[in-house]
Amino acid sequence: MPQSPVVTRFAPSPTGYLHIGGARTALFNWLYARGRGGRFLLRIEDTDRARSTPEATQAILEGLTWLGLDWDGEPVSQFARAERHAEVARQMMAAGTAYPCYTTPAEIEAWRAENPNQPFVSPWRDADPSTRPDAPHAIRLRAPREGVTVIHDAVQGDVTFRNDQLDDMVLLRSDGTPTYMHAVVVDDHDMGVTHIIRGDDHLTNAARQAQVYAANGWDLPVFAHIPLIHGTDGKKLSKRHGAVGLHEYAALGYPAAAMRNYLARLGWSHGDDELFDDAQALEWFDLDGIGKAPARLDFKKLEHVSGHHVAAMADEALLKELADFLEATAQPALTPLQLQRLTPALGVLKQKARTLPQLLEQARFALIDRPVQADDKARAALDPVSVGILNHLTAALQNANWARDDLEAAAQRIAESHGVGLGKIAAPLRAALAGRTTTPSVFDMMLALGRDETLARLADATA
To answer: CATH classification of 376-462 is 3.40.50.300, yes or no?
Structure first.
């Protein structure tokens, strides 16, 4: 019998930004589905009307798009499906797998006060139908009271829940609105979801939701509850640990490819492989590679992964990343002249930069215009002796072939003629070309700037 195609989903609540943990959950679902030729769906769980906002929904969509995760079809609104949720609850009541409950909130509160830590058992569960009043009522699941509910979890293993410790959860409130727990099951069934990959804070929910599946005679999906992400101190991730919103990482200048690599490795492993591309992640990712222990966010490791991807990126792709970063952080776009100077230097610059801001900082020499404004250290390097040496170098460069070997040879000859090492020339040359004393190689800068701009900057510095 042929296997059903894999269908996964990501179902965020639009009550704020896309959390880094949610981004990882989305990535795991995307990798699992895409790696098997399956479908990855997006559902916006917007039933909390007081807290759900269109702005938050848009932020989630933009975050997923930035991360490079595409989804199939249009995003589904859970709120828009409220009537379908109510229909299923009424069908369950007609079938006897659910029942009307007329207990008021005050009565439930009083019962709980007398029976602390006990699951609520409604007095209407087994009441004679003829005693039911014509009054507003909730609809509750008629859950099994004996035995156990076992979740065969692909990450956590078999997890057992005693049925006498689970109450008959409300499916439909007395005002006719569905509960989240019920809506999730109906949506996942109707969307054909085969694998539910989500945080392990939903593990207890799985027991209740499995009972709703069983009550409707629906096939149970594969559950995979992944450990949450903790900070370096082992505590639940929060603002005190640094950036927790995906948008913050984009603003810090980590390329999307690096974030995909890092997040995939955060709680999942394929042997000792730390650095990999999308093709490898799609081929390797499986549920049995997910660990049971919480993953720890490590900014040093993220920087290392980011540096690898910056260095490995094709120049065209890197320029696109830079353009998107500048736009996202409301910085001016690069001009054609800046791009003309920057592009030849990318091969060298990207080997040392770990983030896009670091790359832009190293590329500053190519992005500034004349006259170059020197900082204090650079001005100190332009002492009278050094300026004299630069004058001789400028003359030697007038007719030099503009190739690295020729530029180095010319500089070496000038240094020897003045009885100094090449370093004595490098410091004032950096100051003249970049206005800084810490820069990429002076010869890489000269090649990127070209003959005319290099000589013009040297003339400015020695004037």
So the answer is: no
